[in-house]
Design brief:
By secondary structure, the protein is α+β, with helices and mostly antiparallel strands. It has 2 helices and 9 strands, in the order ββαβββββαββ. The strands form 3 sheets. Strands 3-6-7-8-9 form a 5-stranded mixed beta sheet, sandwiched between helices. The protein has a two-stranded antiparallel ribbon with strand order 1-2. Strand 7, helix 2 and strand 8 form a beta-alpha-beta unit. The radius of gyration is 15 Å and the shape is globular.
Length: 118
């Protein structure tokens, strides 16, 4: 393990592209339930890759097609690193999608998801 820059969190290494971590899997399960309930029409993990600049890309965790036909891009986070927050803000300014960051709420706080819109 190695320390991540500028923080106290330990970097465990990234999963392979297309592989979900536990938090992303829990959110995928939630999206699947919303799709079955008709609240969203479609979702795909790492379904869209956005070019922000030369050699700079942002791949949101989930592309989600809402029931009203609006495309949403959802980022699932346990904690934020500065570059990730910067990328989602830049992408939100550049592209005509709704951008959301979701974070698991602690069970002691009632569980569920905190949602931040960009």
């Amino acid at each position: 393990m190695r320390r991540s820059k500028g923080g106290n969190h330990l970097a465990l290494g990234r999963l392979k592209t297309g592989q979900l971590n536990k938090t992303e899997q829990a959110y995928a399960d939630r999206l699947r339930a919303l799709e079955q309930a008709g609240q969203i029409l479609w979702h795909k993990f790492e379904g869209i890759k956005l070019r922000l600049a030369d050699n700079t890309f942002y791949t949101p965790d989930f592309a989600v097609l809402a029931a009203d036909g609006v495309m949403e891009l959802h980022e699932v986070k346990g904690f934020w690193q500065d570059d990730a927050r910067a990328k989602i803000k830049i992408a939100a300014a550049m592209f005509p999608f709704w951008f959301f960051a979701v974070k698991v709420k602690a069970k002691r706080d009632g569980g569920g998801w905190d949602v931040e819109e960009f």
